[in-house]
Amino acid sequence: MKLFLILGAINAFLAVALGAFGAHGLEGKIPEKYIKTWQTGVTYQMFHAGGLFVIAFLVDKLSNVGLLTTAGWLFLVGIILFSGSLYVLSVTQISVLGAITPLGGLAFLAGWILLGYVAIRFL
To answer: Coiled coil: which residue ranges (predicted)?
Structure first.
């Protein structure tokens, strides 16, 4: 439980900080298209930081369900690959980096599927 609470808090903090940086630090320095791309990364990072909090509380309640831990790691991998690739894409404008983003999206989807399965099966 503690690990996913910490990871959720770190990612929520980073989402707020990166959101502010994108809105104020990058304004006028990169094209508007990439500001929007940056914001997409921030939005998905924050949603999945919340998902990490949900995982943390469920792990405490269902400590013998390893699928929850797997879902939490998938959310973290998704944040790194999806949001991370969008951040790097935004500041470098190297379009090939966009090929990494769907892998993060797949990790997010797999994590939500596992979380839904756990809810159906164990709650």
So the answer is: none
